[in-house]
Every structure is written in C-alpha cells, then in structure tokens.
C-alpha cells in the first residue's frame, strides 16, 4: 500500500523591515550630545533672523520698539545713494573675486600637481596669507598701495616719475585695490582645495588620456574639472560667504572712502545700527542681504539635492 507524501508548501518570505527604526537609534549617544548645540543654533539663527525681519518694519532708533511703519525703512534704504553704491561695489568685488580666485587657484593647483620640487614649501608660502586676519591684510596692503612709500613711491624713486598707482585714493578704482588684498589672502586656500581635488583623480585617467593623445588642456577641461564638481561647489560656498560678509578689508584699507566710494552692505548695516543709532534702517539693510543670499542659495539647493531625491 503506497503512502502519499504530502507536498511541501513553499514558505513565504518574511517581510523586510525598513530599517528606519534601527537607523534612528544608531549612534544615539552622539545624537543626544548634539541636541543642545542644534537647539541653540536653531534658536539663535532662526530666532534672530525672524526678530530682525520683524523689527525691520519698525521705526526703531537706539533701542528696538514695536512701532510699525510698514515698508518705510525699505523705501529709505533704496532711496539712499550710499546703499546703491554699496550694492554696486559688492557686485564688482564678488564677480571678479569668484572668477580670479577660481582661475588663479586652479592654475596654481595644476602646477603644484606636477610633482615639483619643494612643493611643501610653496604650499606653505601660498597658504600663509590665509592665516592672517583681514585687518592685518588690509593694513599691509594699505601700506603697499600707499602712493608716498608704496609701489608708486618705489617706482618713481627708480626714475619713472610719471608712474601712477594709487587705487585706494582714486574713487573710480578703489574697489579694485580692495580686491587685490582679498585675492592675495584667499587664493591660497582655493589652491589647496583644488590640489586636494586633483590628487583624488585616478592616475589611470591621465594614462588613458596620454595613450589616446588627448592634449593636457582638453583633459583638464572636459574630464578633470567635471569630476571635481563637489570641490568647486565647496569652494564657491566658501568664497561666496567671504564676499557677503566683506567688512574687515574695507575698514582696514579705506574705512569706506574716499567719500563713500568703497562702501559695502556689511559696513552700511554696522554704521546705521551702532553709529547712526538707527536700528530700523540697519535691520532693513541686513534683511535685504539675507534675501539676496536666499535667492541664490534656495534654487541651488533645490537643484542640487531635490534632483537627487527625485532621481
């Protein structure tokens, strides 16, 4: 009598856990330790930002007061020639600083990447200005660009008596004198960031380019630079933050002069809040600076991170 063997039923696979609870409690001690710092930063940043925006609509003078006047402070702000000059100066400084910092920094990094002798010494020399404060840099370049005993004085003492180079005393080009000091201090950091990015490129890419007979400049332009996109983004963020908060160099070199020729928004805010004792006008100017940064950052962040999530 044959016995019927029951067929084995296939076992159902267990549902996979999403793993989110485990990720949530991963490194729990570190997250708990960071919570106070995150809360303080959020309160200080967001709370201070909201407070500044609200009081920019008031007629606050020496002390904040809830006397709302609508958009009067903003109308006065954009009717001020001093504010318009500061915006123009910041645009000129910002655009030229971005271009020259990236170009000069990348060229220096490409030269350093050729395994030259005394590379560490050259790196130290180029990076050393970044270790100085902006006040020290501004004072140094104020002496260098002084027409009496600076570059102009030295060249004239050599016989070229008609030579003229006094950017800090010429209202038409004073912002370029400040730009020279800013590039001297910041280009070394850009060079180090670019050099770190170049050292991260696989050596096989260079070998393949040489085998295919691709010129070096085409390899840099079409292969290396696209691969260094994260490095360029980091560098742009660092340069951009330095541009927006430009203040120390201006105060150390020109104090906003001649006249208001080298005025910048950060100095405008400081002068109105702490010298003119007009908090409402200073809050309005700082809010406009915040709005400008947001207009640039928010679309970039959406394209950079929102696109990845959709993908």
UniProtKB/TrEMBL annotation:
Keywords: Cell membrane, Membrane, Transmembrane, Transmembrane helix, Transport. It is found in: Cell membrane. CDD domains: TM_PBP2. The chain crosses the membrane at residues 32-54, 90-112, 124-144, 173-198, 219-244, 283-303. It comes from the Bacteria. GO terms for biological process: transmembrane transport. InterPro entries: ABC_transporter_permease, MetI-like, MetI-like_sf. This is Glucose/mannose transport system permease protein. The lineage of its organism: Bacteria, Pseudomonadati, Pseudomonadota, Alphaproteobacteria, Hyphomicrobiales.
